[in-house]
Design brief:
The chain is rod-shaped, with a radius of gyration of 67 Å. The chain is built from 13 helices and 65 strands. The chain is mostly beta strands. The strands form 18 sheets. Strands 13, 14, 15, 18, 21, 22, 23, 26, 27, 34 and 35 form an 11-stranded mixed β-sheet that branches. About 10% of the residues lie in helices and about 40% in strands.
Length: about 1000
């Protein structure tokens, strides 16, 4: 936008004339134009005035709350070079009575052009000659004023020839003339003269000095809550990647001024020439009279005149004014602050919405610019006639000095004085109004206020995310003030330290309250569980909960909250290999958990060794200099030297015992169930499982098919619903283990127990079984007795064709035994080509008596995974899962007594012997076989490491074993964990082969 200022020629000349500035302006002289402003509202075509007019920049900037008050400066003190016309110079000759004799245009010239021109010495008017008496210059703009008067009576050198510069508007050069050779009036005299002044140099009477040069600067570097969304106390701690703000306070301005009270005198020297008329009587001689007498004659009156010149001094006129001897006013330029935490280590703050001081100054050290003496004017005096009496008077006969001095004193006023001008922020400090004799006493610049909060302010100063932690970093600063150009003998720009400024502590927090819940405890099959460690189960998933939240230091902005913003990495290390999804991580690998991921699930491979371990987790800050563990601290990096929060978990890795199945029964009625055809060894797919769930409690395809779930009972046969196996038949079973059960001395302990259930159903009651073998002394042998252990042993061949074990499964187990169990010496004695056939034919003893079965490593195959990561040893993987094969049968046609019956006491009731037909013996129902299965180690059959039913985990229940069943008559049978098969109590293999009972 362009603003045009327009003045007419008449307006400009009128303003210059009123300012008496016509002499000081020449062609090209810079003039300064300022707007007169009004505040208006409404349309431009018809605005409504709100306030004004305003004549100064200060007034208009404070008239309203302008968005950018600094923009208004462009409308003030606009420089305009003066370009005038050619102005007339006119010579005017007039008589002393005012009659104009001549008026002649000398020429037209630019303002400031130098003119030298002489007046004629005499003029003629009305037949009389007139001589030049005085001359002066008169500006056309104020034609009534007489400037630079030159008088003949004073012998002024410029009376005739005038040398001057052309004024704006033009100049009239005027001369006044008096008659030549006019005889004095003998009847009266005259006196004329004038006084000239001299301004004596002033002296300093007083020079008060006022100074305010201490800004009192202080500042803060603190957390920028608006940017961060949370409050931090920066001196206590603030993380990297958060923002600071810098704020400085100081005085709005500074100043130093000295005002001088200048005093002096104006001296007047006067000169008056008086022509005195004189008279006296001259004595005359007597005339002769008669008779020699004389006749006295009267004196002869005489008259004449004489001139006398008077010179004298008037009483000095006192003057006093004020001038600015020294002035420095300073506005804020900028402030700089430095601190370790600031971007680049420092920040420069420039004023925002700052109201700088405004100074108007007019200053001069020339006395003539401050003191304007008053002209005495022409002195006119009419003397009395000097009477000499009898002699002609002389100048010694008269003295009118006192009268003339009194006349001059009365015509001489005190001088006009004018102070320097100083206006500060619109307030007049030193008034330059014209005064008589003494200028008004000045005030002083007010003490500066402190700036507002956001004048020197910058927020959003983000701390470099990689900056290392550091405590109590020192802050320094400097505030800079610029001296205004309106100064007198100023001291130049100034700078001051900013103090105090708070320190800043950089502390990027991370926390680690990761958790490894004991979620696998329900699957802990240990007979003596360790409750001090979290249990991890082989081949089962487990979840680590690892958020970025938790308790840090109890200082503002920290505390208990989410620290993901400051977390670079979370990681976990297992001392064993794990799967995360399909990704495998070998042991002691650091596994990253993405920031923002609250949990991660892993799966424990089967090949991890059982035992105690420590799992480690770490959370790393974004400004960590390295990942050295020496930088870690438990749970939180509360110490600034640490950049990592750590947590450890003590865990116990535990194996598994599961997947119990019955997949063959010697009772020929079940041949069609387990064989693909009559007379064939090939197995069908039929098996009886513990329940409808897998080892993790997840339903399988058998869920909802109780017919194929244990125990085998009436209704289990798919085509013969009433068929229950006869006692004495062997049945084949298998199950699996995971863990360290591949070496000699590591095996399985099976403890059978027996119950009786009536055919009408109900709950099972514990019983003892007895049996006979050949020989009169081998009657009623109690199962579990020492004689039982001596009388019966169980031997089987693992590779028996009835088991239908796959060749690959057998060869893998045989290969492991040959290469890792046999010694080198044994292998040298028996090469593989001989060992494997023997392995297939080898018989193994698995029991002594009917109440205990022990399966050694010779009763298992190795069926661990083969689709494994490349870094995993295949042998380690394949041996990690074991497939155990067993078989069992009841004694043929056992005798049944309630559990704990004293056989000797019973026999005594019947004459000392029993035949099994006594009413105490139980018949007419079912014998229920229950298995308790344990793992053992160190070749000790009495150890119980894992159990199918352990104090915590009951695999029978996990796999969904039924707790009851209803037969076709609606009779309910109740079962418990480990119940695997019901046998007819009154029918045995002997009945089937011999067609008879016991």
């Amino acid at each position: 936008m362009t603003t045009n200022f327009v003045w007419t020629k008449a307006e400009v000349l009128d303003a210059i004339g009123k300012a008496k500035a016509e002499q000081v302006i020449s062609e090209g002289t810079p003039l300064y134009a300022s707007a007169i402003m009004r505040v208006v509202t409404g349309p431009r075509s018809n605005p409504t005035q709100v306030s004004g007019p305003y004549h100064t920049l200060y007034d208009i900037t404070h008239a309203e709350s302008w968005a950018n008050p600094g923009d208004l400066r462009q409308y003030f003190d606009v420089t305009v070079p003066f370009q005038g016309e050619d102005y007339p110079v006119t010579m005017i000759l007039k008589l002393s009575n005012g009659t104009v004799v001549s008026k002649q245009l000398i020429g037209n010239y630019k303002a400031g052009f130098t003119i030298t021109k002489s007046f004629p010495l005499t003029v003629e008017s009305g037949g009389q000659s007139y001589a030049i008496d005085q001359s002066w210059l008169s500006p056309v703009l104020r034609s009534g004023e007489q400037l630079y008067i030159q008088r003949k009576s004073a012998n002024d050198p410029g009376l005739v020839q005038r040398n001057f510069k052309v004024y704006v508007g033009g100049v009239n050069m005027v001369a006044s003339y008096k008659k030549v050779n006019t005889p004095p009036d003998p009847g009266g005299g005259e006196g004329a003269g004038e006084c000239t002044f001299t301004i004596e140099p002033p002296s300093t009477a007083d020079s008060p000095q006022i100074s305010f040069m201490e800004p009192g600067a202080n500042g803060v570097i603190k957390g920028d809550d608006s940017a961060n969304g949370i409050h931090f106390e920066a001196p206590l701690g603030i993380p990297t990647s958060e923002s600071l703000y810098a704020n400085v306070w100081g005085r709005n301005y500074l100043f130093d001024h000295t005002f001088a009270n200048m005093k002096g005198q104006v001296r007047y020297s006067c000169k008056v020439e008086v022509t005195y008329p004189t008279k006296w009587e001259e004595a005359q001689p007597d005339l002769p009279g008669p008779d020699n007498t004389t006749i006295p004659q009267l004196p002869l009156p005489k008259s004449s005149s004489f001139k006398k010149t008077y010179t004298f001094e008037l009483t000095p006129r006192e003057y006093a004014y004020w001038q600015v001897d020294k002035l420095s006013v300073y506005q804020i330029d900028q402030a700089r602050m430095a601190n370790y935490a600031l971007p680049g280590g420092e920040v420069t703050l420039y004023p925002n919405n700052y109201e700088a001081p405004v100074v108007e100054l007019a200053n001069s050290t020339e006395v003539e610019d401050h003191v304007v003496p008053k002209e005495t004017g022409s002195l006119s005096f009419t003397p009395d006639v000097v009477d000499g009496g009898d002699h002609e008077p002389t100048e010694n006969d008269v003295d009118d000095t006192a009268t003339l001095k009194e006349l001059a004193e009365s015509q001489t006023e005190d001088p006009e004085v004018q102070n320097d001008r100083l206006v500060f922020n619109g307030e007049t400090i030193m008034d330059d109004s014209v005064a008589t004799g003494t200028g008004p006493t000045p005030g002083r610049i007010p003490d500066p206020p402190m700036i507002e909060d956001e004048v020197l302010y910058e927020g959003g100063l983000m701390i470099n995310r990689y900056l290392l932690n550091r405590a109590d970093t020192i802050s320094t600063g400097t505030i800079y003030y610029t001296m205004l150009p309106e100064n007198v003998d100023g001291n130049g720009d100034q700078e001051y330290p900013i103090s105090p400024i708070n320190s800043v502590t950089v502390h990027t927090p991370v926390v680690n309250y990761s958790q490894l819940p004991d979620d696998n405890r329900p699957f802990d099959q240990r007979m003596e569980p360790d409750m001090t460690r979290t249990v991890l189960i082989l081949d089962r998933p487990f979840t680590v909960y690892f958020t970025e939240s938790g308790q840090h230091l109890g200082i503002p902005g920290y505390g208990n909250r989410d620290y993901s913003k400051y977390t670079k990495d979370k990681r976990i290390q297992f001392p064993f290999g794990v799967f995360q999804g399909s990704q495998y991580y070998p042991d002691n690998t650091w596994i990253s958990i993405p920031v923002g991921t609250p949990a991660m699930t892993f799966t424990l491979p089967t090949w991890v060794n059982e035992g105690d371990y420590t799992v480690r987790t770490q959370s790393w800050a974004i400004n960590a200099p390295s990942d050295g563990e020496y930088l870690c601290q438990q749970n939180l990096n509360g110490d600034l030297v640490n950049y990592c929060a750590a947590e450890n978990f003590n865990v116990g890795v535990v194996g598994r015992l599961f997947d119990f199945r019955i997949w063959d029964i010697g009772d020929f009625r079940f041949e069609k169930v387990f064989r693909t055809g009559t007379g064939t060894l090939a197995h069908s797919t039929a098996m009886y499982y513990t329940g409808g769930n897998d080892e993790n409690g997840i339903p399988t395809a058998l869920s909802g098919q109780p017919q194929w779930q244990l125990p085998i009972r009436k209704g289990s046969h798919p085509t013969e619903q009433l068929t229950v196996p006869h006692n004495g038949y062997s049945f084949l079973f298998d199950f699996r283990t995971i863990g360290n059960l591949w070496q000699p001395g590591e095996g399985i302990r099976i403890e059978p127990s027996f119950y009786f259930i009536p055919k009408s159903g109900g709950a099972a009651a514990p019983v003892d079984l007895y049996y006979d073998i050949s020989g009169s002394q081998n009657k009623l042998i109690g199962v579990g007795s020492s004689k039982d252990k001596l009388s019966y042993s169980r031997t089987y061949r693992l590779a028996d064709g009835l088991r239908n074990i796959a060749d690959g499964e057998l060869s893998t187990s045989a290969s492991y035994e040959y290469n890792y169990i046999l010694t080198q010496e044994e292998r040298e004695k028996k090469p593989w080509i001989k060992f494997y056939p023997q392995y297939l034919k080898r018989k193994t003893n698995i029991g002594a008596g009917y109440n205990l079965e022990v399966l050694s490593y010779k009763s298992r195959t190795l069926v661990g995974p083969t689709d494994i990561p490349a870094v995993v040893d295949p042998i380690t993987a394949v041996r990690s899962v074991q497939h155990w094969y067993g078989e069992y049968n009841l004694p043929i046609a056992p005798y049944i007594l309630p559990k704990g019956t004293n056989l000797l006491n019973l026999a005594n009731q019947y004459g000392g012997s029993l035949d099994g037909h006594e009413p105490e013996f139980i018949t007419g129902g079912y014998i229920l076989v229950k298995f308790e299965i344990y793992t053992l180690k160190n070749g000790d059959a009495d150890t119980r490491i894992l159990g199918y039913k352990a104090p915590i985990a009951n695999m029978w229940a996990i796999e969904g074993q039924m707790t009851g069943a209803t037969d076709e008559r609606g009779q309910t049978f109740f079962f418990s964990s480990g119940d695997i098969m019901l046998f007819e109590s009154d029918f045995s293999v002997r009945n089937d082969y011999l067609g008879q009972g016991r």
